[in-house]
Amino acid sequence: MKKFLLEADLHRIAQWLRFLGQDALLLSGPIEKRKLLKYLDRVFITTSRRLEGHLKAWDVDYFLLPRENWKVQLCLLIRYFGIKPELRLDRCYYCNEKLMSVDREKVKDRLPPLVYIYGRDFTLCPSCGKVYWKGSHHERLKSQLEEILKLC
Ligand SMILES: [Zn+2]
Prior knowledge:
Structural class: alpha/beta
Shape: globular
Bound molecules: zinc ion
Helix content: 25-40%
Radius of gyration: 17 Å
Order of helices and strands: EHEHEHEHEHEEH
Number of strands: 7
Number of helices: 6
Distance between the termini: 22 Å
């Protein structure tokens, strides 16, 4: 499976790629050779046509996205890389870390009361400590994804 590195402006796309179970890191700040060379095992996703010559010279594997609405951009990436358009929700939305299942009792004090009762499939990010669960937001994400897939 391809691993991704996205320029800072593409943060929404990075988060969505994580929803789809993809390993997607965000490059913080400006695009610099020194930083990119740390991630040569990843495809760099950028909208910067201006940098294309440099990326080639630095031998960086890259994919140039058109400057478009982020939903269209996401749709293009899903198609181009053959990403399965299915919500995996097995990575932390914020830090890209793989989530671990966790017993609801262990995270009880960090859950809203109704989530404690009705939520299911609780997971925990080992890096930032954020707790996730299955709930109504899944349906919203699903229909958003369906809309996105119609855009390209
Ligand atoms: Zn996290």
